[in-house]
Each structure stands twice: as C-alpha cells, then as structure tokens.
Amino acid sequence: MKQRLYALAWLMLGAVAAPALAATPTEARVTAFKTMLRTFEPMGLVVREQEPYRKDAFAKQAATLKTLAAEPFKYFPAGSADAKSRAKPEIWSQAPRFAEARTRFLTAVDGLNAAAQTGDRAAIRKAYGEVAQGCKSCHDAFRGPEK
C-alpha cells in the first residue's frame, strides 16, 4: 500500500513538473494537455463500458484529473502562439470568453470528481459527458487545425 502511494505521488509530481521543464509555452501546454488526457481517456473506456468499473480506481483517476486540469491553462501567455501552436488568436483577443470556457471546464472536472467519489454510475456518465463537452467546445472555439 505504501509503495502504491509513493508511486502515485511521484507520478503526480512528474505530471505537474514536466510542463514547467518545456522550452516554450506551446510545448508546456501540449505536455500538460497530453498528461491530462492520459487520465481522462481511460475513464472514458470505463464510462463506455469497454473496461470494468472499479470504484476506488475510478475515484483516484478523477481526483488526479482534478489535480491536473488547471495546469495547461498556465501556459497561454500573450504572444505564445508560435509556428507549432494550434492556439487560435481568439484565446487572447477574446480572453474573457476563453476564461469562461476554462471555468466551465474546471467546474465540469470538479463535478466528475464529486460524482466519482460517490460511485453513482449515472452521475459519473453525465459528469464525464460534461467534461468531454467542455473539451470539445473549447477546441471548437480556440484550437486550430493540425499543422
């Protein structure tokens, strides 16, 4: 048990620290988003019943997602859209709208975490969908095409 806790602590520390080591804000936010996605995608497999539901494991994933969710948003300083970036200029020209989308997403993540802690599968499915919709709406408005 102690070894699992140490491993989880190191994983979370690495996930939060890795973006800070990136050379550019674009690389940092991509790293942070991919780290978050590696937690979110396995939860989707469970929600879609392609993997078995294990309450404790799912609750830990949701708590980890909550810890990681705000991290990517630290790496959108003005002027950070470089040649590799898919960030649309609207992130900065419509900053209040971007902040609202971020808040909706983080609120949805909080809701998923709360549902996961109860084990209510219907609430989990609904909350997972709200997080996924938060991702999609932000991508639709603020993320450009593949380069």
TrEMBL record:
SUPFAM superfamilies (UniProt xref): Cytochromes (SSF47175)
Phosphoprotein recorded as keyword: no
Secretion signal span: 1-22
Keywords assigned by UniProt, alphabetized: Electron transport, Heme, Iron, Metal-binding, Signal, Transport
GO molecular function terms attached to this record: electron transfer activity; heme binding; iron ion binding
UniProt xrefs under InterPro entries: Cyt_c/b562, Cyt_c_II, Cyt_c_prime
GO BP field: electron transport chain
Modification(s) after translation: Binds 1 heme group per subunit.
GO CC entries: periplasmic space
UniProt entry tagged with the keyword Amino-acid biosynthesis: no
Entry binding sites for heme c: 135, 138-139
Source domain of life: Bacteria
Name of the protein in question: Cytochrome c556
